[in-house]
Amino acid sequence: MNASKWIRQIHRWLSVIFVLAVIANFAVLGRGDIALWIGFSTLIPLALLLFTGIYMFVLPYANRWRSARRAVQ
Ligand code: HEM
Question: From the CB of 54, is ligand 1 less than 6 Å away?
């Protein structure tokens, strides 16, 4: 499996972790608690989703730039 496929897999599984963390957040809020750590536990997968997501977003453009450069050379 190449690097971009790994990134896609990581993004997919991070999205599952993120959704579970959001559900846990609501469950804790529903009990009337405000727990800061559970809030941060959603932000960590979200931040990782942002990086892996931006990587996947840029990938097709980067491939196009690279093949255009190769055509010029
Ligand atoms: C935080 C910023 C995020 C960015 C910039 C981002 C960006 C992307 C990009 C560019 C793709 C690839 C789309 C394609 O196939 O061309 C993707 C796929 C996907 N994203 Fe995100 N995403 C973000 C957050 C999330 C979140 C919060 C979730 C769900 C909780 C999520 C779930 C998914 C899933 C399930 C896929 C499909 C993965 C696969 O094909 O296996 N993403 N995302």
Answer: yes
Tens-digit pLDDT profile for residues 3-62 = 899 999 999 999 999 999 999 999 998 888 788 888 899 999 999 999 999 999 999 999
Which residue's CA lies nearest to atom 6 of ligand 1?
53
pLDDT reported for residue 72: 83
Look up the domain containing 44 and give its range.
3-72
- Count of the separate structural domains present in the chain: 1
Q: For residue 37, how many other CB atoms are within 10 A of its CB?
A: 7
Ligand 1 pocket member 22 (CB < 6 A): no
In sequence order, the 6+-apart residues with CB closer than 8 A to the CB of 53 are 11
Q: What angle do CA 12, 16, 20 make, to 5 degrees?
A: 165
